[in-house]
């Protein structure tokens, strides 16, 4: 069962009378009465056009924030347990009083099971010679230059060509292009096309005979024999840099001035990247395993608020790609309801992990001092190139730093073998 608390707050007497009067003045200025300037018509004439019930609701809107603050002040004992903004409704509203009903959703009970010695295996970061070699080749290719050559096309060259395709002597749609840059050996064209250009020189022409695959995407071309008339304009050789002084200067990698030091740096980077991925995967597995042993009944309002945050973050990520959430719905033929349903499982998982870690921190009596949090804030600020006060404002203050550290320490507890 979800933990909730019902709280009544009554506004009456002079305070309520003043609220009704203020609401009336606001209404009288908006309602048009023939022969009277706004706000100057007799009250009985105004109230013929505006019901007393509606006026009371307007007055309630004027005092709801004050009622909310009064509720918080009178229930300080549970403020730390609130997990969502209270739901507000009217219990009674008339000319004498308004009684608000606040339903407080409190932190659900968390029953921890086994959370230490979970026997989750952690992978080891291993790097092969091929991974190092492939990475170095990718780097060299990024610095490669395309150099014009007079010799014939060879595998791996770039050919600048015009081409037009024919089936039974008739050109077909999409079979023609000019000044097309084709990397020979890339496999981008129909099987057999690129191979037949090997040996052709610039300014030469060649008829290339191919057969379209039986599973080709264009129905009218499936399995058809075709002839492409090709004109070669230029041939370029891809020249990757040698392991020389200029190449290492271009790389500008600290401590790298030879092939051996480059290999060492690449290996170091790959290991660091893999270790970070392995650590994240390991922590996810620990959290998942500990969550299986934990009992929590998540209130629906917590799920809905988590979904609100997730969708907001999703919209911001889309915006960085130049896409609005509305466009995303159009592209995917979906809507917010579908997206919320899709995200619900992840939302509940996040809430479960968070509540579980908070309970572990409580069980393990984990505390973070102001000094420790302040030191961490300085480190974070330096990492992101910001002033400490600027970072704290962005992060949510020292209390959020303390909470973040508590959660990290709780996660460290999961790693304990006993």
Short description:
This protein has helices at 13-30, 43-49, 52-74, 129-142, 193-197, 245-251, 259-292, 300-320, 325-332, 336-363, 370-383, 388-395, 398-414; strands at residues 4-12, 87-93, 97-105, 110-111, 145-148, 158-167, 170-183, 205-211, 225-239, 295-296.
From the structure above, extract its key features:
10 strands, 49% helix, 418 residues, single chain
Q: How would you sum up this structure, described in words?
A:
With 418 residues, the chain is an alpha+beta fold. The chain is 49% helix and 19% strand. Strands 5, 6, 7, 8 and 9 form a five-stranded antiparallel beta sheet that branches. Strands 1-3-2 form a three-stranded antiparallel beta sheet. A hairpin with a 2-residue loop joins β6 and β7 (170-183). The radius of gyration is 35 Å and the shape is extended.
Secondary structure layout:
Layout: E1 4-12, H1 13-30, H2 43-49, H3 52-74, E2 87-93, E3 97-105, E4 110-111, H4 129-142, E5 145-148, E6 158-167, E7 170-183, H5 193-197, E8 205-211, E9 225-239, H6 245-251, H7 259-292, E10 295-296, H8 300-320, H9 325-332, H10 336-363, H11 370-383, H12 388-395, H13 398-414
Antiparallel strand pairs: 1-3, 2-3, 4-10, 5-9, 6-7, 6-9, 8-9
